[in-house]
Amino acid sequence: MNYWLLKSEPSSFSIDDLARARGRKTAWDGVRNYQARNMLRDEMKKGDRAFFYHSSCEVPGITGIVAVVRAGYPDVTAFDPKDHHFDPDSDPHAPRWFMVDVKLVRKFERSITLDELKRHASGKLKDLQLLQRGTRLSVMPVSAQSWKFILSLA
DNA sequence: GCCAACGTTGGC
DNA sequence: GCCAACGTTGGC
Are A44 and A29 in contact (CB under 8 A)? Predict the structure, then answer.
């Protein structure tokens, strides 16, 4: 089993939105970055776990855990001209963008803030991409060690 | 293939 | 709202 971190802006989709969703599940759509796409398409497997991270908000941080319940499949929002993430160059016969389905496993009592994570940037969380310079990916792998340590902060 | 211009991300 | 860092686009 592999571990991941998924970013979402709570103003567009928060962990509470996920908690309210039918079956506490959602399709993780709208990712339009090739590196992230590759992970969604090729590497994320059913049963993998991911931290749910709130970005671009008052207090950025990890707010809970989700499970991958369906591995990568074509992101249909790319084919919908009315969708915000529409991509006219994505061919339905050779889809360019992919998504996975995730299900809420646990919402933390309090969010583990970016501030708090940063305090371990040169220690236990040395390998956490989130803390590395210039990392803007909305999907990133998390090592088993970092996963375990972050859980101990929750 | 280079690179300038532009767009996006995301913390602050 | 600012800006650093990065990705993408398109002319050449």
Answer: no
Calculate the angstrom distance between C1' of C9 and CA of A105.
40
Tokens coding A110:
């309090």
Rounded average pLDDT over A122-146: 93
A23 touches strand C (CB under 7 A): no
Q: Determine whether the distance from the CB of A131 to the nearest atom of strand B is below 7 Å.
A: no
A150 sits in which H/E element: helix A144-153
Q: How many CB atoms lie within 10 A of CB A4?
A: 21
Verdict on whether the full-model pTM lies above 0.90: yes
- Residue-wise pLDDT for A57-106, tens only, equals 999 999 999 999 999 999 989 888 888 888 877 888 889 999 999 999 99
